Fold these 2 entries.
Entry 1:
Amino acid sequence: MDFFLPLLQSLNPVIDGLIMPATNLGLSNAVISVTADSNERGWQVIVVTILCSAFAQTVKIIGKLIKTGRLDLRVLSKTGGMPSSHSCCTVGMAISVGLIDGFNSVTFAIAFCLAIIVMYDAAGVRRTVGHQARIVNEIMGELFSDHPRLSSERIKEFLGHTPVEVLVGAALGAAIAYIFNSWALGKL
């Protein structure tokens, strides 16, 4: 622990915010940077993330209802679709953190990087795996057509999102975060 104390103290002048002793962390001589306002607003990040997920999933249910004319709640447990709820949640979280701690804070940087990774995964890796699953299912159907048990087992194909679904989810998450945080501060 003695190795980290000088490092923390040397970084402290660079960090913005209110400086306070870190005795509650067992670091008697160390100081950390905390903004008093952000300590009381962490709940907003959690609420925004939950709202983003609920709203994105509701949009999917309504979209399916409009498209097919019937209510299909199974959409809640399926992956993919418009908008991407993962993108909506992570971008909503990142924007909330940025509005609370500042867009130049370490916490925003972490939340932003997480959002980028999730969106890349949704539009890239998971979508590619979905395409591969479709091809494997076709191959299995052709190769084992004489064996009904083997040819009927299918791999889940609809796993990822199109780039548009990801961008719409991200925009929706940013809007929800901005509106909710403005409301929470009494600006709406």
Entry 2:
Amino acid sequence: MVILSLLLVVALVAGCGPNEAPKPSESVQPTQTPTGLAAAEITVQVEKDWLAYYEAAAKRITDANPDVKIKFQEIGSFDHIGILDETDASNPDVADLFALPADRLTGLAGKDLLGAIDAKKIAGRLGGWSDFDAGLGGLLNLDGEYLAFPFNIETLIVFANEKNAKAEGIDLDKPVELGSIKNPAHILLPVFDAWFGVALTNSADIALLKQEGDGFVADLTADWGDLEAGKKAAITELYDYWKLNYDNNTTLFDDGAGWGYISDKFTDGETGVLRIGGPWETNDMKSQTDDGANLGIYPIGQIKVAGKPLRHWQGGWGLAINPRIEEDKAKVELAEAMIGEIVNPQYAVDLFKATGKILENVAVDAYEASDLNEIDKKVIAAVIESFEISPGRPLFQEFGPVWDTWKNAVLSWNSVVPGTVEAAYGELKASFDAMMADLK
């Protein structure tokens, strides 16, 4: 813990703004900074690149409330969560307010490491939601308590190499059907990895694991004959896609070599055309497409499976408070005020510039009207559209075994070499049967 403590750079800055303060967007309804806050002091975790933006947000609060203080702990979000998870909420090296990815919510909540916040009050002040609980807000609610406030939205989108598409005769003016390609590189889909594979299963509403009553069920434990037609069609296209790669001796369905194959094929002058990825991968995609000159960016539905658009998950990050301040009303109100200023819709563009984070409650028009570059605007538009059509990400801890269960089953096809889709499905079913037996 001494070493961990030394890793924390504590910036005792309260109200010192960056050299150039963020400018509020004129296309977003103004949001009033809370006033009348009682004297209180909180610490806020912040990543190095976020600091100037956070300082400006804090300054708006301290200017309007001279009796409050906001100090910063400069540390990476995952490092900070690691310290919290390995110790406890009373650790002084853990901030009062911090960021966390949504998938860490249930694990931390299970250890009583997250405090409840009045998310509806914050959302009401900020505005922009037609149904707060229908998106990320609902995912961050456990047992009737909001344990984080939406920081940003995340989901997968489609990247295209337009130069390769032209050379390969692929029309990008309309969605491309997975089952229609003749060259396996035309769609580079790492379906062996469940994080990407769920885009295919979600397109057919295949539940790899879902809660039902007091237990869990998985669609892939059904007999092949009992599967719904749409689910069969998606699995059939998955099998045909594997077969196309197998017959062409590609290394796509290889956990070790698959990613290198995708990267190589997507490069200018190769035959790769479409791939899926997160907005955080944009710079990598630009490096393969003449610094983005040949880069196309589309919503995830640009790729279809059995006639249905791919759909990933509604995921993202949240802003949470340390439960040690729950009984101190003044500190909680200050933390909630800071949350609101960090994600103040008026500063959505500057938030994106500082952190790459996209706000759920800001319309794409506000980003389009900004001074962001065209690639960033396209990425934001694609993320928002893809997020809206996707289901919520499963956050329950029991989902953990799904990752390896799916991967091992799909990768087994290379060694088993199933001659039919029904035989291939048998490998999936056997793996999921075993996983469900372990859950009971």
